[in-house]
Amino acid sequence: MNYHIVTYGCQMNVHESEKIAGILRDHGYTRETGEEEADIIVFNTCCIRENAENHAFGNIGALKKLKRQKKGLLIAVGGCMAQEEGKAKILREKFPFIDIIFGTHNLPALGEMIERKKKQKKAVVEIAPERAQTEDGIQPVRTSYPNAWVNIMYGCNNFCSYCIVPYVRGRERSRRAEDILAECRDLVSAGYKEITLLGQNVNSYDSDGQGGMSFPELLDAVASVEGKFRLRFMTSHPKDFTEELAAVMQKHAKICRLLHLPVQSGSDRILSLMNRRYTREKYCSEIALLRRYLPDCEVTTDLIVGFPTETEEEFEETLSLVREVGFSSAFTFVYSPRAGTKAAAMQGQIPEDVQKARIMRLVEAVNAQTREKSAKYVGKRTEILCEDYDAKKGLYLGRDEYGRMGYFADKRSRIGEFVTLKVTEANGISLYGTAED
Ligand code: 5AD
Ligand code: SF4
To answer: Is 200 in the pocket of ligand 2 (CB under 6 A)?
Structure first.
């Protein structure tokens, strides 16, 4: 039997879809296909911004005809949006043809829900509140060789005032260090060349929930696993960045010289309204500390424009921070009010045209900086881990440890190999060149 998974949102969701594929495989769905051929279609949704939700609603709605035509086709909707307060009801009313709705905490039960649905006419809905359990025991179907993702913790306690994640993913729970280490060792033995440790807030990792192994200690332990591989981690919160983390990064060449450290805004007043618990000055001092340990480390970030009450001057503080820190790239977002969060109820929501004008200026500033930084690579060498083939371009591609995408031509597949790229051209975050060996 065939399956098709549609994923929205972040890396966390991409990896969760690999776990969904693992569950489906254990229940007889062995081949991934397009939606026309599928016997089950699973939507792994995201609700972090309104447009991600609208996108999912549109795509689910578009399946009405296929569902009517194809007897036996199952449609399941899971992930953050399904977990959102009141959303399961709306989904059922709007799309009565949905067979299964499962929340973020109910993913491990998906297999059993499928079996139940096959025996009953009524939709199966499970959006029970979080379980303390963090070991789901699911063997993911990994789809990104030579890269692999490993969850180290789930949930978030930070309650940034704009963010819905703590509501839909629950409180922080860390996996046991020995389980994480065993998974990483297995991945390296299986030939994976890059491991990314995942968590909403990796710096809060606490192996036993009582001040056991900390994140820098865990990172040190994973980086000490034998074998040639690269190590990345995301996402970090600036309020928890420590010198110890910078020191561990310096200690291991395996840890990529790239820190993704979302700052969100360059204005202290907005940072405080966002409940971020650091100032611009504190953030900049962390970057300075990081660069004392690792002078060549690149920093990327997330930025939000148009947060309630943000003035033109405050927006410009975000622009000036982009230059001050020298981010090599950034994810830029227009603030999106999320029901139930503090910010959604704030006075002074910013009109859409103002938000649009600000995001355009920000994107231009970030892109200009990215181009400027990439241009410096021309004529130099950088080691990339070849991860894919771009059929349209007819080129192999992979990232270097600084997060830049490198493209090159080759007669044979280099996927899974570390390749020295001699850079001849730069375009945005992408580098083009020739493979040296
Ligand atoms: N509106 C816009 N961006 C948001 N993010 C989280 N919540 C919102 C929201 N309501 C962004 C933040 C976060 C990233 C994952 O998504 O920048 O770091
Ligand atoms: Fe959301 Fe803030 Fe938690 Fe990140 S740290 S998931 S932005 S609440």
So the answer is: yes
Q: Is the pLDDT of residue 130 over 70?
A: no
User: Ligand 1 centre from 264 Cα, in Å?
Assistant: 8
Q: Report CA(38)–ligand 2 centroid distance (Å).
A: 35
Query: Residues of the chain with pLDDT > 90: what percent?
Result: 91
pTM of the model: 0.95
Nearest CA to ligand 2 atom 2: 160
- Is residue 237 left, alpha or beta, with left meaning phi > 0 and alpha meaning psi from -120 to 50? beta
Q: Look over the chain and give the mean of its residue pLDDT values, rounded to a whole number.
A: 95
Task: Give the number of the ligand closest to the Cα of residue 335.
Answer: 1
Q: How far is the CA of 303 from the centre of ligand 1 (A)?
A: 8
pLDDT digits (tens, 9 = 90+) for 276-329: 999 999 999 999 999 999 999 999 999 999 999 999 999 999 999 999 999 999
Query: Please, what are the domains in the chain?
Result: 2-126 (3.40.50.12160), 147-375 (3.80.30.20), 381-435 (2.40.50.140)
Mean pLDDT of 127-156: 86
Query: 131 pLDDT band (50/70/90 cuts)?
Result: low
Kindly state if the Cβ of 158 falls inside 6 Å of ligand 1: no
In angstroms, what is the span from residue 333 Cα to ligand 1's centroid?
7
Reported as a pLDDT band with limits 50, 70 and 90, residue 132 is low
Q: Is the CB of 161 under 6 A from ligand 1?
A: no
Q: Is the CB of 276 under 6 A from ligand 1?
A: no
Long-range residue pairs from 203-211, CB within 8 A, at least 24 positions apart, any chain: 203/236, 203/237, 203/240, 203/241, 203/242, 203/245, 204/153, 204/157, 204/172, 204/174, 204/237, 204/240, 205/152, 205/153, 205/174, 206/172, 206/174, 207/174, 207/176, 207/177, 208/174, 208/176, 209/173, 209/174
Please return the burial class of 391, using the count of CB atoms within 10 Å of its CB with bins 0-12, 13-18 and 19+.
Answer: exposed
Ligand positioned closest to the Cα atom of 306: 1
